[in-house]
Amino acid sequence: MEELSFCPKCGHQTLIWDQDSKLTCSNCDFVMYQNCAAAVAVLIKFKDKYLFTCRNKNPQKGFLDLAGGFTDTNESSEETCKRELKEELNLNIKPENLKYLGSLPNTYLFKNIKYNTLDLFYLYEIEKETQLNLQLEEVSEVVWLKQNELKIKDLAFDSQRKFLKKYFNIL
Fold first, then answer.
1. Which sign, positive or negative, has the C-alpha torsion 95, 98, 103, 109?
2. pLDDT, tens digit, 9 for 90 and up, residues 102-126
3. Which domain range does residue 16 map to?
4. What pTM was estimated for this model as a whole?
């Protein structure tokens, strides 16, 4: 946000970032808050294995990730889970079978702007193997791992590393 300097209302180069969540203009009454964005991450389980995607774009291209993404306007987090799993994996889910596990704050760097997010974690258990059609723009492959096979350092995002360390009780 530090890179933004011109006010969108008056056009003067008087935009000030408070280093937290607010842009203000010292020339006019313009104020804009950068509130945190909601995002979901779904831990998909089949028997004793968990599905991880491999990111196919930055940030963190090549790192492991949980299926999920940002919540659209007027969308619940459960609807986001359903939409993202369909988009990324071509997996149809029943939102009522999602189990909410918790949330953590995170940051997401996109085109040199750091966005604050609130990552909501869900568990979704599948009962049979299913054919996945990957959205190759976002996901290069999927990896099924047992809990003890996961290397926390291979995960793309801090919130997922923190969450899964606690969830899997990894020291």
1. negative
2. 999 998 888 887 888 999 999 999 9
3. 1-35
4. 0.87
